[in-house]
Design brief:
Blueprint: E1 2-9, H1 13-22, E2 28-35, E3 38-45, E4 48-53, H2 54-60, E5 62-68, H3 72-84, H4 92-100, H5 113-121, H6 134-141
Antiparallel strand pairs: 1-2, 1-5, 2-3, 3-4
């Protein structure tokens, strides 16, 4: 199974605010998998953890970069995690906490995009997983 971590943005006020706060050209991080010759995006968005075809995703989002996960064991584990978490609610309170710089954690009751990807990849952040940002994910995987 092919696997990538993707970085993107959607042109709206929240995405633009997050890009500005992180000083990055993206505001969103997602997982991309090739399954049966189809590309599938697994992501945490305001509707919760969901799957979407890559073409449909690209139609509404600007892709900034992709980083291939070459470790097949890590890629398979990431896919398993991502599938198991489908339907998990979005972590709106985590986004507010990041913006305000305050402590927040709810484990995996809710997920934000960067928490979802970091947990899927087994990234051990230096901060609470609920507060990890897309920029933290990029740093942990060595850029794209």
């Amino acid at each position: 199974m092919e696997c990538w971590v993707g970085f993107s943005y959607h042109d709206n006020w929240l995405s633009n605010l997050m890009r500005q706060k992180m000083n990055k050209p993206y505001s969103h991080v997602f997982m991309l998998f090739e399954c049966n010759n189809q590309l599938l995006v697994l992501q945490a968005t305001r509707v919760g953890v969901a799957a979407l075809g890559y073409d449909a995703f690209k139609a509404k989002n600007k892709i900034i970069g992709l980083k291939k996960i070459t470790n097949l064991i890590q890629a398979d584990a990431a896919f398993d995690y991502c599938i198991k978490k489908l339907g998990t609610p979005y972590g709106f309170l985590a986004i507010i906490a990041i913006g305000l710089g305050i402590h927040y954690e709810d484990g995996e009751k809710t997920l934000i995009c960067s928490e979802y990807v970091s947990r899927a990849l087994g990234i051990d952040p230096e901060k609470l997983p609920d507060l990890i940002t897309p920029a933290d994910v990029e740093a942990a995987i060595g850029g794209f």
